[in-house]
TrEMBL record:
It comes from the Bacteria. Keywords: Cell membrane, Membrane, Transmembrane, Transmembrane helix, Transport. SUPFAM superfamilies: MFS general substrate transporter. This is MFS transporter. The keyword Iron does not apply. It comes from Nocardioides plantarum. The chain crosses the membrane at residues 15-39, 51-71, 91-112, 147-165, 171-193, 214-235, 247-268, 280-298, 304-331, 343-366, 372-392. The lineage of its organism: Bacteria, Bacillati, Actinomycetota, Actinomycetes, Propionibacteriales. Coiled coil: none annotated.
Length: 417
C-alpha cells in the first residue's frame, strides 16, 4: 500500500515510523485546543494567555542551538526520547496549573521537549534514509505528520463538542500518553551512532556561521516557513472577518491540506525524479504565490463564489507545500557535514521557531490593513524567496543536483536503524 502511494518501504524501520505516527496523532489532538484549553480550564484572560504563551515560546528559542549540540554529542535517538519524556510529563501536569507562572512553565518546558523532538528528527531520518532517497523519506515523514494531525484533529473535535472540563482534561492526558508510547517505541530503534566528541568541540557553530551556502539555505527555509504560517494565522481570520465566509470553511481548508499531503505526498515526490532541486523549489514558489493571488481575488466575489475560490486556492497552496517541503528537508540534511549535522539542522529549527514567533504579529498587522495588505505581504515574501533560491546553486552545489528517488551505494551515514 505504501509503495502505491510513492512512499518508501518501512521494513526494519517500523518502530521508528510507529513512534512518529503516535507523536503526530497526539499533536493533532492537542493543536485545536492549545489556547482554548487554558481559556476554559483556568481563570486567565485571553490577553494574559497570549502574553504568557508568547513569552514562554520566545524564552525557549535561545536553547534551540544547544539542542543541536546535544544531538551531535549524544546522538539523535537519545535527544528525541528525552524530548518525548519531557513533553509527556508536562502535558500530564497541565490539569494542575492555573496561574500565569505555572502555565508559562509547563508551556515553555513542553515547547523545549518539542524542540528536542524536531531538532533530532531530521538527523535521525538522515541516518536511516540512504543517499538518493532522502526526498522520499522526508516526504513520507511530512505525510505521516499531516495524517496524524488530521486524525488527531477529528478526535479533538469530540472534546470540543462535549465542551466539559473532564473532556478537555481527557484530551490533554491522551496527548501525554502518546508521548510516553512514542518513547517506548523508540527504545526498539537501533541508534545510528554519533561523531567523536573531539571533532564536535573543534568547530560547531563557527563552521555553520562560515558556511555561506548553508546560511542561504537557512534563509530559504525561513522564508518557506513564513509562507507556511499563512495557513494557521492569515487564512482563518481572512475567511471569517474579511470575507465573511461560512464558519466551516477554515476547517475544510485544514482537512484539504492534511488529506492531500497524507495521501499524495509520496506520489508528488516520485514525480520529481530527474528534476533539479532548486528548480523544483521554484515551481513550488509559483504554486504558493498563485494561491495567494487567488485568496486576494476572492475578496472581489460573492460569498458563494469566494468560498469556491478559496477552496481551490487551498488545493494550489497545498501542492506548493508538497513540492517544496521534501526537497528543502533533504537539502538541509545532506548539506550538513556528518559530524555536525545536529548543530547545522538546529539552525534550521531555529529558523522555524523564529517564523512561528514573527508570523502572528506580522500577519495580524497586515490583516488589520485589509485584504490587499494581507496578501501583498506574503507575495513579497515569495518574490524574496524565489530570488534566494535562484542564487542558492551558486553557493550550495547540492541545490543543483537532481532528485533521484533511488538509493545510492551504502555509505557510513546510512547506518541501519
Amino acid at each position: 500500500m505504501l509503495s502505491r502511494l510513492g512512499f518508501p518501504a518501512v521494513g526494519r524501520h517500523r518502530a521508528f515510523v510507529s513512534a512518529l505516527a503516535i507523536d503526530a496523532l497526539g499533536g493533532g489532538i492537542w493543536m485545536p485546543l492549545s489556547l482554548l484549553y487554558f481559556l476554559r480550564q483556568t481563570d486567565l484572560t485571553l490577553v494574559e494567555l497570549g502574553l504568557v504563551m508568547t513569552v514562554a515560546n520566545l524564552a525557549i528559542t535561545p536553547l534551540v542551538p544547544l539542542v543541536g549540540r546535544l544531538v551531535d554529542r549524544l546522538g539523535p535517538k537519545s535527544v528525541m526520547q528525552v524530548g518525548n519524556l519531557l513533553q509527556g510529563a508536562m502535558f500530564a501536569l497541565y490539569p494542575l496549573v492555573g496561574s500565569m507562572v505555572t502555565v508559562g512553565l509547563v508551556v515553555g518546558l513542553s515547547t523545549l521537549g518539542r524542540t528536542m523532538f524536531w531538532g533530532s528528527n531530521g538527523p535521525l531520518v538522515t541516518q536511516i534514509a540512504p543517499p538518493g532517497e532522502r526526498e522520499v523519506w522526508f516526504g513520507f515523514v511530512q505525510a505521516l505528520r499531516n495524517a496524524g494531525y488530521g486524525v488527531g484533529g477529528l478526535l479533538a473535535s469530540v472534546a470540543l463538542t462535549v465542551g466539559t472540563g473532564p473532556a478537555y482534561d481527557a484530551v490533554v492526558l491522551a496527548n501525554a500518553a502518546s508521548y510516553f508510547v512514542a518513547f517506548a517505541l523508540m527504545t526498539g530503534v537501533e541508534s545510528g551512532g554519533r561523531p567523536e566528541r573531539a571533532e564536535v568541540r573543534r568547530s560547531g557553530f563557527v563552521v555553520v556561521a562560515r558556511d555561506r551556502g548553508y546560511r542561504l539555505l537557512v534563509l530559504v527555509i525561513f522564508l518557506y516557513a513564513l509562507t507556511e504560517m499563512t495557513l494557521n494565522v492569515t487564512m482563518p481570520v481572512y475567511f471569517a472577518d474579511l470575507l465573511g465566509l461560512p464558519g466551516w470553511v477554515p476547517g475544510v481548508v485544514f482537512v484539504i491540506n492534511t488529506v492531500m499531503i497524507g495521501l499524495g505526498q509520496g506520489l508528488v515526490v516520485r514525480s520529481m525524479t530527474g528534476a533539479i532541486r532548486s528548480r523544483v523549489v521554484l515551481v513550488a514558489i509559483c504554486f504558493t504565490a498563485s494561491s495567494f493571488v487567488m485568496m486576494l481575488a476572492a475578496d472581489a466575489f460573492s460569498v458563494a463564489l469566494a468560498t469556491a475560490v478559496v477552496l481551490v486556492a487551498a488545493v494550489v497552496y497545498t501542492v506548493g507545500e508538497m513540492v517544496a517541503g521534501p526537497v528543502l528537508g533533504a537539502l538541509s540534511a545532506e548539506a550538513a557535514p556528518d559530524e555536525h549535522r545536529g548543530t547545522y539542522m538546529s539552525v534550521v529549527q531555529l529558523g522555524w521557531n523564529l517564523s512561528s514567533a514573527v508570523a502572528p504579529l506580522a500577519y495580524a498587522s497586515l490583516l488589520d490593513l485589509g485584504a490587499v495588505a494581507a496578501w501583498s505581504g506574503p507575495l513579497v515574501l515569495c518574490a524574496v524567496w524565489a530570488a534566494c533560491v535562484v542564487r542558492l546553486p551558486h553557493v550550495l552545489p547540492r541545490a543543483s543536483t537532481r532528485v533521484t528517488n533511488a538509493a545510492e551505494e551504502p555509505s557510513p551515514e546510512s547506518t541501519p536503524v
